[in-house]
């Protein structure tokens, strides 16, 4: 048995220049591994709590020295001597030690750092790649990535209400070809934006963030870019939206503050998506199409469009097994977004993935808008075998780190590597094409 011998935490910066934690776990045989914690901007209300110092004199209150001291103090004292290969027992202990329902006392950033660092050390210790160590040594499915090529909403200063406009190369024969198609489309999009006189500075997730005039213009520009790059929209590459509508929801209505200032009731919002899909059949998934607090809106959306496209719950499920189970019971969404730091332990994250699998829901592994060079989610996506991930555009080092990690995995798996594009495309398109 390899025991946990030491935990160290370092206050580092994330991709937005805000503090976050890097946690290093050392085992009794000297094996060590580090995990770095991400951070969201458009967070769900029921996410586990990211502990910040609140000391305005340091990083505007965003320092994480308290979380660091929890890792090196209380947490280390209790888990020193724990079996590094028993992730479930470790994560259970971390939850008990925290003692709150949302990890507010020790901090989900402190807890996730420890949970992931130990999981990575355990993989090292057993001589396995991280994706194989995460539970399934036969894991070989590389997910279809969703590349966030145009940013709006709270991720960019523009006139676009919706947060993310993504492309997914589902028609590619293998992952590396899909990555190439997306990168070529990204460059074509840059040329299209230039031609139209728009800026090509990028937002938090590496997508362009120009001052576009409407919420539909990004779709038009993306379709043009896909064609310019020599691909077929709706076949080689499809479109995915994350409008992050919890950010638009005010007093029971959806307010399109940044574009045309219109207000929409939940029923009108569902109608809006339906008519958008009629006009743009290249759209095959919408994440957070209605707000986290709009439960009946979610049911209506699922009833209306659930057999046509993927409807992914992010802010409403927050990778929380209890909220997810309830949502499934209530007929909400048909897929879940999976973010490790929304819940704070690896075990609870894997539990959500299992619930999705056994309920016929999709599961999409996801980064946060604040990231580091940590690539754990790439391995998690292969281990999960659910076939989809979103981790930003084909620009910005912290996003590329994950996409490059899949290239390594693809090479390592050799002829055993499978690419999820076609499988996932068929599964979700059948009812649309019928
Ligand atoms: P966040 O955005 O990381 O800022 O929460 C990503 C998302 O909404 O999916
Ligand atoms: Zn989202």
State the gist of this model.
The chain has 434 residues and is an alpha/beta fold. The protein has 14 helices and 16 strands.
Key phrases:
434 residues; alpha/beta; Enolase-like, domain 1; TIM Barrel; 2 domains; three-stranded antiparallel β-sheet; 17% strand; globular; binds 2-phosphoglycolic acid; binds zinc ion
Question: Can you tell me the overall shape?
Answer: globular
CATH architecture of the largest domain: Alpha-Beta Barrel
> What structural class results from the helix and strand content?
alpha/beta
List the secondary-structure elements in sequence, H or E: EEEHHHHEEEHHEEEEHEHEHEHHEHEHEH
- What would the CATH topology of the largest domain be? TIM Barrel
Largest sheet: 8 strands, mixed, barrel
Percent of residues in helices comes to 40-55%
What's the alpha carbon Rg, rounded to whole Å? Answer: 21 Å
**Could you name the ranges where pLDDT drops below 50 across 5 or more consecutive residues?**
none
Oligomer: single chain
Strand content: 15-25%
Structurally, the number of domains stands at 2
Whole-number average pLDDT? Answer: 96
- The CATH class designation of the largest domain is Alpha Beta
CATH superfamily of the largest domain: Enolase-like C-terminal domain
Helix segment tally: 14
Structure description:
This protein is an alpha/beta fold. The protein folds into two domains: 4-127, Enolase-like, N-terminal domain (Enolase-like, domain 1, 2-Layer Sandwich), CATH 3.30.390.10; 141-431, TIM Barrel (Alpha-Beta Barrel). The protein has helices at residues 65-79, 87-98, 108-126, 130-133, 175-195, 217-228, 266-279, 295-305, 321-329, 340-343, 346-359, 376-384, 397-413, 421-433, and strands at residues 4-13, 19-27, 32-36, 141-142, 144-151, 164-168, 238-242, 249-250, 253-255, 263-264, 283-287, 310-313, 335-338, 362-366, 388-390, 418-419. The chain has an eight-stranded mixed β-barrel, surrounded by six helices. The protein has a three-stranded antiparallel β-sheet with strand order 1-2-3. The chain is globular and about 60 Å long. Bound molecules: 2-phosphoglycolic acid and zinc ion.
């Amino acid at each position: 048995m390899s025991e946990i011998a030491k935990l160290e935490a370092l206050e580092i910066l994330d991709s937005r220049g805000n503090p976050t934690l890097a946690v290093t776990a050392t085992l009794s045989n000297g094996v060590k591994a580090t995990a770095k914690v991400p951070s969201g901007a458009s967070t769900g209300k029921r996410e586990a709590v990211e502990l910040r110092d609140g000391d305005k004199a340091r990083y505007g209150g965003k320092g994480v020295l308290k979380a660091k001291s929890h890792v090196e103090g209380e947490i280390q004292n209790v888990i020193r001597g724990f079996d590094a290969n028993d992730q479930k027992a470790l994560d259970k202990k971390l939850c008990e030690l925290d003692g709150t329902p949302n990890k507010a006392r020790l901090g989900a950033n402190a807890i996730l750092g420890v949970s992931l660092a130990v999981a990575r050390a355990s993989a090292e210790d057993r001589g396995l790649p991280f994706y194989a160590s995460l539970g399934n040594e036969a894991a070989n499915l590389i997910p279809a990535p969703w590349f966030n090529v145009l940013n709006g909403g709270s991720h960019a200063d523009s006139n676009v209400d919706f947060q993310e406009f993504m492309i997914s190369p589902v028609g590619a024969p293998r992952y590396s070809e899909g990555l190439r198609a997306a990168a070529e489309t990204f460059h074509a999009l840059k040329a299209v934006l230039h031609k139209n006189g728009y800026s090509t500075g990028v937002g938090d997730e590496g997508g362009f963030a120009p001052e576009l005039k409407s919420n539909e213009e990004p779709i038009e520009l993306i379709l043009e870019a896909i064609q310019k790059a020599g691909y077929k929209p709706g076949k080689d590459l499809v479109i995915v939206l994350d409008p992050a509508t919890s950010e638009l929801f005010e007093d029971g209505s959806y307010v399109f503050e940044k574009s045309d200032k219109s207000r929409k009731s939940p029923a009108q919002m569902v109608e809006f998506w339906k008519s958008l899909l009629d006009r743009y059949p290249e759209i095959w998934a919408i994440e957070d199409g209605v707000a986290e607090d709009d439960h009946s809106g979610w049911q209506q959306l699922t009833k209306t469009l659930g057999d046509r496209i993927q409807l992914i719950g992010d802010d409403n499920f927050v990778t929380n097994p209890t909220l997810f189970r309830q949502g499934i019971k209530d007929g909400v969404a048909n897929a879940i977004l999976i973010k490790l730091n929304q819940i704070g332990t690896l075990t609870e994250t894997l539990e959500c993935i299992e619930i999705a699998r056994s309920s016929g829901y999709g599961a999409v592994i996801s980064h946060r808008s604040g990231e580091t060079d940590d690539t754990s989610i790439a391995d998690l996506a292969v281990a999960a075998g659910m076939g989809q991930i979103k981790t930003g555009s084909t620009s910005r080092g912290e996003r590329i780190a994950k996409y490059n990690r899949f290239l390594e995995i693809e090479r390592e798996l050799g002829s055993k590597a499978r690419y999820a594009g076609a499988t996932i495309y068929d599964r979700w398109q059948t009812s649309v094409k019928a």
